[in-house]
Structures are given as C-alpha cells and as structure tokens.
Predict the 3D structure of the following.
Amino acid sequence: MNTKAEICGARTKDGVCMNAPVTGKERCRLHGGLSTGAKTPEGRERQAEAKRARWDEIKQALALYRDQAAECG
Ligand SMILES: [Zn+2]
C-alpha cells in the first residue's frame, strides 16, 4: 500500500508546502524535487569550501567564547 504523502510537505514560513511533489521524488520543484545534488568536481569542491568556511567561523566563535569564559573565571 502506498502511504507516501501526496504533498511536498517541506516546511515553509506559513506551515508546510502543499505543492505536489515532482514525480518519483518527495519534494516539489521549489523544494529540491528537481535537484540531483552536486555532480561535477567543481560543484563538489565549492560545497566543501563553503562547509570549511562555516566551520572556521564556528571554531572562531567557540574560541572567543572560551576566552571570555576563562577571563570571567
Ligand atoms: Zn514544496
């Protein structure tokens, strides 16, 4: 029995997306139903780069937080 939802169901600011999913996918075309992810080496590298940049920011924020905590005892 097919119990798969017949709506996209992605969370939006108004609740959930009521669009029909792309055929064979779980999300509508606005919410990644058409996306196949990064396929080219360039695309994958760009994603990895963005991930590293985010982690650097997080580590800096954590280091700053630890420094402040240490000063306050
Ligand atoms: Zn959607």
Helices lie at 41-71. The chain is about 40% helix and 5% strand. The radius of gyration is 20 Å. Residues 8, 10, 17, 19, 27-28, 30-31 surround zinc ion (CB under 6 Å).
